[in-house]
Amino acid sequence: MMVFGLSMEAQTNPNENNDCGFFHPNAFSPNRDNTNDEFRVIVQNNCDPISYHLRIFDRYGRLVFESIDPNESWNGEYNARQVKEGVYLWQLQAVYTVPSGSESVRLDEKGSVMLMR
Question: Any idea where the domains of the chain sit in the sequence?
């Protein structure tokens, strides 16, 4: 999948038994054109969430978005106002059951995303 000519980054936990890879865009544009308007960290569909906590911070360390729902995404707003263009940091702490159901994996990942208007 391409986002603004940049590829989506695919990450997996170093655990070899982990079938719960995750994906995140490196840029998004919340300009209401129905293309790349929201940011979310996507865990493979065949993994079932046990717990999920996504937080997004601005460059000053202020929390601008937080969710415990893996289906919820960030629309580029904070307190019902559009935030400025720039780089935002995200942190995901989650536990998922692998497709076999025999074990769970913990994801503790961090990254950045460029918000472009």
Answer: 2-115
Task: Give the number of residues written for the chain.
Answer: 117
Whether the Cβ atoms of residue 26 and residue 9 lie closer than 8 Å to each other: yes
Place of tokens 């559009």: 82
Q: Which CATH architecture has domain 2-115?
A: Sandwich (2.60)
| Position 17 pLDDT exceeds 60 | no
35 burial via Cβ count (<10 Å: 0-12, 13-18, 19+): exposed
Q: ∠ CA 5-27-40 to the nearest 5 degrees?
A: 125
Q: Provide the whole-model pTM.
A: 0.81
Angle at 114 between CA 112 and CA 117, to 5 degrees: 155
Asked if 46 contacts 101 with a C-beta cutoff of 8 angstroms, the reply is no
